[in-house]
Amino acid sequence: MTFDQYAAAVPFYDLWHEDGHVPEVREKLPPLVRGDVLEIGAGTGLITELIAAATEGEIFALEPSLGMRSVLLSRLAGRPDLLGRVTVLPYGALDVDLDEPVDMVVMIAVLYAIEDRAKLWETLARQLVPGGRLVFNYTERPMPTPSEPARMAAYQVGRHTYEIWGRTHAVEGERVSASFTYRIRHGDAVISEDVVESVTYRPSAATLRAELTAAGFAPDEAPEGLQAWRLAK
To answer: pTM, whole model, 2 decimals?
Structure first.
């Protein structure tokens, strides 16, 4: 069995993301969506449903985490209208190889997780038709600094409180090592707790521009918080 590093986060995922970037993406992404779409890092399917509402094309929802993918498939099971045009792919972003190229690649809340971006851009370019569009969310922010654990969010679900704690351990160039604690409380008692070690990579806007240009992409218009690039060749 393959180790699923995201399994501990699954019960917290929709609570956290609906309270974070998803409402903004839900507002800004649909006007950019066209044709057949490859979604990188579909998670539990929050953005997959959004894409499906914005296009009548075929959707390839790529998600390597078994836990996340299970929720995504359960979500699709309640949507018979989507079962015929959403294919769930159990791959990582660097491993995808579609049968035919698509019109668009969407990548939400995934960029920071990938170290080998040169291979990422090369891989995604191969999945696009000439002139196809790559869209991802990105906002340039100051790098974090090492910190003590801090509660990032808490959600009440019935009699239980779902808490997410985070701590930055070290920052070396783009590389940020951190840990996240996913804790469920019943009153003052902790009934579940998982700690997940995390490494992310945070490029500057200038670095992204140079990488994408070198990979054959040209900048396109997008609302604040999203980046859009067209495959120029």
So the answer is: 0.95
